[in-house]
Write the structure tokens for this entry.
Amino acid sequence: DAKTTQPPSMDCAEGRAANLPCNHSTISGNEYVYWYRQIHSQGPQYIIHGLKNNETNEMASLIITEDRKSSTLILPHATLRDTAVYYCIVRVTGGGNKLTFGTGTQLKVEL
Amino acid sequence: DAGITQSPRHKVTETGTPVTLRCHQTENHRYMYWYRQDPGHGLRLIHYSYGVKDTDKGEVSDGYSVSRSKTEDFLLTLESATSSQTSVYFCAISESLLSSYEQYFGPGTRLTVT
């Protein structure tokens, strides 16, 4: 699986958009970009995924650059409950389809 | 939230004793996974199952075995627990092995081997 690079931590004011970047410069054509988050020792929670088009769901938006070498997860109106570690993962079918979690970005949403 | 439960949620055991962790799902998903999470390592895949009685090894399978006799249950067994197996264990489920399908995780089991 392609390696991802994320900043170790970010802060965001409540009510503002949180933009979490991820670099995956070695991504190949059949690898999806996934975002999960983990709130204080709970199980990881799926947020969103995409291949090459931008995606939006009720939780977030995913913006993937045209060359697919980086992406941004956008939480449009961050709340205190969005404080968590956010993981960007690129994933290809095969090998059990495992998810390889790195160290992620610790997002802290403050008043 | 996906219907995934894990039991027990916490366990303390002694070195050399056998331990079995249970993952139960109510989603009828075909694929189930066991991961462990340790500080500095993120989550690592132990074993996974692609159907009843069909399992395969992940990247850290030594010292672990699994069984799946029913679609809804996936058991992880430590035959003889060691201190290096102290960890948080997460079960996950998925409808498909295709990379376009997300995995859903259970709440985790915190295991301490003394």
In short: Chain A touches chain B through 26 residues (CB under 8 Å). The CA atoms of residues 6 and 22 of chain A lie 5 Å apart. The first strand of chain A starts at residue 9 and ends at 13. Strands of chain A lie at 9-13, 18-23, 32-38, 45-50, 55-56, 61-64, 70-75, 84-91, 105-110.
